[in-house]
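Q: Hi! Curious about what Signal peptidase I looks like structurally. Here's the sequence.
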Amino acid sequence: MLDELRAGKIGINQPGQNSSEHDLEDTPEENNNASGTGNAAKSKKGKSRKEGFNLKDEVISWIQVLVAAAIIAFCVNHFIIANSEVPTSSMETTIMAGDRVIGSRLSYKFGDPQRGDIAIFIYPDDEAKGIKTYYVKRIIGMPGDTIDIVDGKVYLNGSDTPLDEPYLHEPMEPEEPQHYEVPDGCYFMLGDNRNYSNDARRWTHKYVKRDKLVAKVLFQYFPKIQKLN
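A: Let's find out. The predicted structure is below.
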């Protein structure tokens, strides 16, 4: 045995060396196991994400968005702006038939109507029948005004000078003289296309009450965008 030790055939460190080699051989397998564990973790994480999607919650979320948008649109359209289509030629050439206009409801909520305003209002003859019809005309007579229409010209409050109306489509055709006295809290409305306008001159109820003025028209948005005055 002593001869074998001297020859190096056996040694006291050999079992340890064998053990070390065995440990090194096991390392890749252990790494593979660790890697497998990581993949399993990733798989579980991906699965968790997929399971986290809830169709019912998603649908409810979209419904909430749509309802909120509808409420905002309703409030804007009923309390801030008035969106109207003008079906006739009574306001040509300021507004053509088929044009769509936007009016500000706030203008008459927090301010007073002015002569020359283009206004959206409730047509008084239909309102007397229980029907709500919206008209678009220009404010000509203010509360307390006297208005005389003579030879196709409008005279205010006994003036000898006719009202300057550069917005008219064409001169008014002469008719029998007409006289109007605007009551307090009311307005007298005429179209810009006077010869083809169903306006206060033709109505049974000739004056529009203050609370029936819906909005001041600010601009046209279809078929083109332009400010109106």
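A: A fun detail: Helices lie at 2-7, 14-52, 55-80, 106-110, 124-127.
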